[in-house]
Amino acid sequence: MKRPLGERIREVRRSRKGKDGKRLTLVELAERIGTSQPALSMIENGATKEPYPATLVALARELNSDFGEPWLRRHLREDRRERASLPQISVAELIGAVDISIIGRVPAGGAMEPIENIETITLPPSLADRNKRVFALLVQGDSMKDEGIWPGDVVFISECPDPANGQIVVAQVDGEVTLKKWQRKGSRVTLIPANPDYSKKEIKAGVNEVQCIGEYIGLLRIKRRR
């Protein structure tokens, strides 16, 4: 008979190391996946009988464990296949790379926050397009996490005023900027999150002003230490 899921999660967490080299705490794990320590505590002690699937997927990815659940095992397999299909950037490719600016923080919900001390980041030439402006944004929020875009990631954006349906874009709606999937049908634009905890936003021509600032072409993730 299987032990309760919360016990299995606790066991895996306690086998992982935190930033200080000691056992990973609930506080640090909650910060990593963008939830609260009490919420995780309730999952581990069994008070939350049916945790949100999105939370369990985030835990599985962060702790690199399926906790003995076949459906989470499938998610991790898909993640590994996706990572394997990503182009690998070699040292040779970085020769001739260009530096671009990280110009702000984009919510993955809300208004973009400018970064006062402009930072730069190196863009591999394989992602550069001399005919288009490319810039970078720091992601805040987890509304695009099911597309593999997480808080703290740096996303590369290429200018694109007329994106294809289904493309991930940085869109501006009534002065606010967000990272979402783009869907246009006639005069209506729908911005779609990749997280079931968030709602779609529908924009009608003449009611709201919407503009595609650019399309997502890649990201940089700094590996957290465990």
In brief, what are we looking at here?
Helix content is 25%, strand content 31%. With 226 residues, it is of the alpha+beta class.
Describe this entry's structure for a reader.
The structure is a single chain. The longest helix is centred in the middle third of the chain and has 16 residues. Strand 7 and strand 8 form a beta hairpin. The protein has 2 domains: 81 residues, Orthogonal Bundle (434 Repressor (Amino-terminal Domain)); 129 residues, Umud Fragment, subunit A. The protein contains 6 helices and 9 strands; from the N terminus they run H-H-H-H-H-H-E-E-E-E-E-E-E-E-E. It is globular. It starts with a helix and ends in a 6-residue tail after the last strand. The protein is of the alpha+beta class and 226 residues long.
Residue stretches low in confidence (pLDDT < 50, at least 5 long) are 86-98, 110-118
Gyration radius (Cα, Å) is 19 Å
* Structural class label: alpha+beta
Tell the overall outline.
globular
Percentage of helical residues? Answer: 25-40%
The largest beta-sheet arranges its strands as: 2-1-3-4-9-5-6-7-8
**CATH homologous superfamily of the largest domain - what is it?**
Umud Fragment, subunit A
Q: What's the number of helices?
A: 6
The major β-sheet equals:
9 strands, mixed
- What is the correct CATH architecture of the largest domain? Ribbon
